[in-house]
Amino acid sequence: MLTLESVSATLANVQVLRGISAQFELGATVAIVGRNGAGKTTLLRLVMGFMPKHTGRVTFDGQDLAGVPARDRASLGIGYAPEDRVLFPSFSVEGNLRFPCEVLGMARRAVDARLAETLTIVPELEAMLPRSAAALSGGQGKMVALGRAVMAGTRLVLLDEPFQGLAPVLATQYGTSLQRLIRARPELCIVITESNRSLLKNIPTETLVLERGELQRSFVAAALSH
Protein backbone atom coordinates (compact mmCIF):
# COMPACT_ATOMS: atom_id res chain seq x y z
CA MET A 1 0.00 0.00 0.00
CA LEU A 2 2.53 2.65 1.19
CA THR A 3 5.91 2.18 -0.46
CA LEU A 4 9.12 4.14 0.05
CA GLU A 5 11.82 3.74 -2.57
CA SER A 6 15.32 5.08 -1.85
CA VAL A 7 13.96 8.09 0.00
CA SER A 8 16.43 10.70 1.27
CA ALA A 9 15.80 14.15 2.74
CA THR A 10 17.89 17.06 3.96
CA LEU A 11 17.09 19.74 6.54
CA ALA A 12 19.28 22.83 6.95
CA ASN A 13 22.01 21.17 4.88
CA VAL A 14 21.99 18.09 7.15
CA GLN A 15 20.96 14.79 5.63
CA VAL A 16 18.20 13.44 7.87
CA LEU A 17 16.95 10.46 5.83
CA ARG A 18 19.30 8.25 3.85
CA GLY A 19 18.05 5.96 1.13
CA ILE A 20 15.05 4.52 2.96
CA SER A 21 13.14 1.73 1.23
CA ALA A 22 10.22 0.00 2.95
CA GLN A 23 6.70 -1.19 2.33
CA PHE A 24 3.72 -0.92 4.70
CA GLU A 25 0.74 -3.15 4.00
CA LEU A 26 -2.94 -3.02 4.86
CA GLY A 27 -3.62 -4.52 8.27
CA ALA A 28 -0.07 -3.96 9.53
CA THR A 29 0.79 -2.07 12.71
CA VAL A 30 4.39 -0.93 12.46
CA ALA A 31 6.55 0.76 15.08
CA ILE A 32 9.44 2.89 13.83
CA VAL A 33 11.79 3.19 16.79
CA GLY A 34 14.76 5.48 17.05
CA ARG A 35 16.51 8.04 19.20
CA ASN A 36 15.55 11.70 19.15
CA GLY A 37 16.95 13.18 15.96
CA ALA A 38 17.00 9.87 14.12
CA GLY A 39 14.59 11.16 11.46
CA LYS A 40 11.27 9.67 12.62
CA THR A 41 9.28 12.91 12.46
CA THR A 42 10.86 13.86 9.14
CA LEU A 43 9.83 10.50 7.69
CA LEU A 44 6.16 10.96 8.61
CA ARG A 45 6.15 14.59 7.50
CA LEU A 46 7.56 13.50 4.16
CA VAL A 47 4.74 10.98 3.69
CA MET A 48 2.24 13.74 4.51
CA GLY A 49 3.75 16.07 1.91
CA PHE A 50 5.37 18.55 4.28
CA MET A 51 8.88 17.79 2.97
CA PRO A 52 8.58 18.58 -0.73
CA LYS A 53 12.33 18.62 -1.30
CA HIS A 54 13.43 15.02 -1.16
CA THR A 55 14.80 12.34 -3.43
CA GLY A 56 13.36 8.91 -4.05
CA ARG A 57 9.74 7.91 -4.52
CA VAL A 58 6.75 7.57 -2.21
CA THR A 59 3.69 5.77 -3.55
CA PHE A 60 0.30 4.99 -2.03
CA ASP A 61 -1.73 2.26 -3.69
CA GLY A 62 0.61 2.65 -6.65
CA GLN A 63 0.01 6.40 -6.95
CA ASP A 64 3.09 8.60 -6.79
CA LEU A 65 2.44 11.04 -3.94
CA ALA A 66 4.68 13.64 -5.56
CA GLY A 67 1.62 14.63 -7.57
CA VAL A 68 -0.68 14.88 -4.55
CA PRO A 69 -0.51 18.18 -2.58
CA ALA A 70 -0.29 17.85 1.20
CA ARG A 71 -3.78 19.32 1.59
CA ASP A 72 -5.24 16.49 -0.52
CA ARG A 73 -3.60 13.51 1.16
CA ALA A 74 -6.39 13.09 3.71
CA SER A 75 -8.68 12.41 0.74
CA LEU A 76 -6.69 9.20 0.18
CA GLY A 77 -7.71 7.97 3.64
CA ILE A 78 -4.53 9.03 5.43
CA GLY A 79 -4.79 10.34 9.00
CA TYR A 80 -1.88 12.01 10.82
CA ALA A 81 -1.31 12.92 14.46
CA PRO A 82 1.85 15.06 14.67
CA GLU A 83 4.05 15.01 17.73
CA ASP A 84 3.01 18.56 18.70
CA ARG A 85 -0.74 17.91 18.12
CA VAL A 86 -1.38 21.07 15.98
CA LEU A 87 -5.00 21.64 17.02
CA PHE A 88 -7.03 24.71 16.08
CA PRO A 89 -7.26 26.59 19.40
CA SER A 90 -10.30 28.61 18.33
CA PHE A 91 -12.25 25.42 17.55
CA SER A 92 -13.98 23.16 20.03
CA VAL A 93 -12.72 19.60 20.38
CA GLU A 94 -15.65 18.47 18.25
CA GLY A 95 -14.79 21.07 15.63
CA ASN A 96 -11.22 19.80 15.48
CA LEU A 97 -12.43 16.22 15.06
CA ARG A 98 -14.89 17.06 12.31
CA PHE A 99 -12.59 19.42 10.44
CA PRO A 100 -10.72 16.98 8.15
CA CYS A 101 -13.94 15.30 7.04
CA GLU A 102 -15.66 18.62 6.44
CA VAL A 103 -12.73 19.84 4.36
CA LEU A 104 -13.12 16.70 2.25
CA GLY A 105 -16.73 17.68 1.59
CA MET A 106 -18.26 14.68 3.33
CA ALA A 107 -22.01 14.84 3.97
CA ARG A 108 -22.98 15.74 7.52
CA ARG A 109 -24.56 12.34 8.09
CA ALA A 110 -21.33 10.63 7.06
CA VAL A 111 -19.28 12.88 9.35
CA ASP A 112 -21.70 12.14 12.21
CA ALA A 113 -21.23 8.42 11.64
CA ARG A 114 -17.44 8.77 11.51
CA LEU A 115 -17.51 10.78 14.76
CA ALA A 116 -19.70 8.19 16.49
CA GLU A 117 -17.24 5.44 15.51
CA THR A 118 -14.27 7.53 16.66
CA LEU A 119 -15.89 8.03 20.07
CA THR A 120 -16.18 4.26 20.48
CA ILE A 121 -12.45 4.00 19.80
CA VAL A 122 -11.42 6.97 21.97
CA PRO A 123 -14.34 7.28 24.42
CA GLU A 124 -12.50 9.79 26.60
CA LEU A 125 -13.14 12.39 23.89
CA GLU A 126 -16.90 12.44 24.36
CA ALA A 127 -16.78 14.52 27.55
CA MET A 128 -14.35 16.94 25.87
CA LEU A 129 -16.41 17.62 22.73
CA PRO A 130 -17.74 21.06 23.74
CA ARG A 131 -14.46 22.24 25.23
CA SER A 132 -12.18 24.72 23.54
CA ALA A 133 -9.04 23.09 22.19
CA ALA A 134 -7.11 25.96 23.78
CA ALA A 135 -8.17 24.74 27.24
CA LEU A 136 -6.74 21.24 26.90
CA SER A 137 -3.67 19.87 28.60
CA GLY A 138 -0.89 18.55 26.40
CA GLY A 139 -1.96 14.98 27.09
CA GLN A 140 -5.59 15.69 26.30
CA GLY A 141 -4.47 17.36 23.09
CA LYS A 142 -2.68 14.15 22.13
CA MET A 143 -5.93 12.22 22.60
CA VAL A 144 -7.77 14.71 20.38
CA ALA A 145 -5.04 14.46 17.74
CA LEU A 146 -5.47 10.68 17.79
CA GLY A 147 -9.22 11.08 17.33
CA ARG A 148 -8.71 13.47 14.43
CA ALA A 149 -6.32 11.02 12.76
CA VAL A 150 -8.91 8.26 13.19
CA MET A 151 -11.59 10.51 11.64
CA ALA A 152 -9.52 10.96 8.48
CA GLY A 153 -7.50 7.75 8.37
CA THR A 154 -9.59 4.99 6.86
CA ARG A 155 -6.59 3.29 5.21
CA LEU A 156 -3.44 4.64 6.88
CA VAL A 157 -2.88 6.34 10.25
CA LEU A 158 0.48 7.93 11.12
CA LEU A 159 1.16 8.64 14.81
CA ASP A 160 4.29 10.60 15.69
CA GLU A 161 5.66 9.99 19.20
CA PRO A 162 2.13 9.57 20.61
CA PHE A 163 3.18 8.58 24.12
CA GLN A 164 5.74 11.34 24.62
CA GLY A 165 4.85 13.44 27.67
CA LEU A 166 1.71 11.50 28.54
CA ALA A 167 0.91 10.95 32.21
CA PRO A 168 0.57 7.24 33.10
CA VAL A 169 -3.25 7.33 33.15
CA LEU A 170 -3.46 8.97 29.73
CA ALA A 171 -0.77 6.66 28.35
CA THR A 172 -2.89 3.68 29.41
CA GLN A 173 -6.01 5.21 27.84
CA TYR A 174 -4.11 5.96 24.63
CA GLY A 175 -2.77 2.42 24.42
CA THR A 176 -6.24 0.98 25.00
CA SER A 177 -7.62 3.22 22.24
CA LEU A 178 -4.97 1.92 19.84
CA GLN A 179 -6.00 -1.63 20.67
CA ARG A 180 -9.64 -0.73 19.98
CA LEU A 181 -8.62 0.87 16.68
CA ILE A 182 -6.79 -2.26 15.58
CA ARG A 183 -9.83 -4.39 16.40
CA ALA A 184 -12.34 -1.98 14.83
CA ARG A 185 -10.41 -1.52 11.57
CA PRO A 186 -8.45 -4.72 10.90
CA GLU A 187 -7.53 -3.59 7.36
CA LEU A 188 -6.05 -0.30 8.58
CA CYS A 189 -2.29 0.26 8.39
CA ILE A 190 -0.96 2.06 11.48
CA VAL A 191 2.56 3.48 11.65
CA ILE A 192 3.76 4.65 15.07
CA THR A 193 7.06 6.37 15.79
CA GLU A 194 8.55 6.15 19.27
CA SER A 195 11.85 6.74 20.99
CA ASN A 196 11.11 4.07 23.60
CA ARG A 197 9.90 0.72 22.26
CA SER A 198 8.73 -0.38 25.75
CA LEU A 199 5.91 2.20 25.56
CA LEU A 200 4.36 0.01 22.86
CA LYS A 201 4.67 -3.24 24.79
CA ASN A 202 0.91 -3.83 24.77
CA ILE A 203 0.48 -2.97 21.10
CA PRO A 204 1.17 -5.82 18.63
CA THR A 205 3.58 -4.33 16.11
CA GLU A 206 6.27 -5.08 13.62
CA THR A 207 9.34 -3.04 14.55
CA LEU A 208 11.71 -1.10 12.33
CA VAL A 209 14.73 0.70 13.78
CA LEU A 210 15.65 4.09 12.38
CA GLU A 211 19.22 5.05 13.17
CA ARG A 212 20.98 8.13 11.74
CA GLY A 213 18.42 8.37 9.00
CA GLU A 214 18.68 4.73 7.91
CA LEU A 215 16.39 1.78 8.56
CA GLN A 216 18.24 -1.23 9.93
CA ARG A 217 18.34 -3.78 7.14
CA SER A 218 17.51 -6.83 9.24
CA PHE A 219 14.36 -5.17 10.59
CA VAL A 220 13.30 -3.98 7.14
CA ALA A 221 13.60 -7.50 5.78
CA ALA A 222 11.49 -8.86 8.62
CA ALA A 223 8.76 -6.30 8.00
CA LEU A 224 8.69 -6.83 4.26
CA SER A 225 8.38 -10.59 4.66
CA HIS A 226 5.43 -10.32 7.07
Q: Would you write up a description of this structure?
A:
With 226 residues, this protein is α/β, with parallel strands linked by helices. The protein has one domain: P-loop containing nucleotide triphosphate hydrolases (Rossmann fold, 3-Layer(aba) Sandwich), CATH 3.40.50. Helices cover 32% and strands 26% of the residues. A hairpin with a 2-residue loop joins strand 4 and strand 5. The chain is globular, with a radius of gyration of 17 Å. The two termini are 14 Å apart.
Radius of gyration: 17 Å
Number of domains: 1
Major sheet: 6 strands, mixed
CATH class: Alpha Beta
User: Average pLDDT across residues?
Assistant: 92
Detail the poorly predicted runs: 218-226
State the fourth-level CATH superfamily: P-loop containing nucleotide triphosphate hydrolases
Query: Order of helices and strands, N to C?
Result: EEEHEEEHHHEHEEEH
Q: What's the architecture, going by CATH?
A: 3-Layer(aba) Sandwich
Strand content: 25-35%
Helix content range: 25-40%
Shape: globular
Helical run tally: 6
The number of distinct β-strands equals 10
CATH topology: Rossmann fold
Q: What structural class should be given to the helix and strand makeup?
A: alpha/beta
Q: In whole angstroms, how far apart are the ends? A: 14 Å
Largest beta sheet: strand ordering: 6-7-8-3-9-10
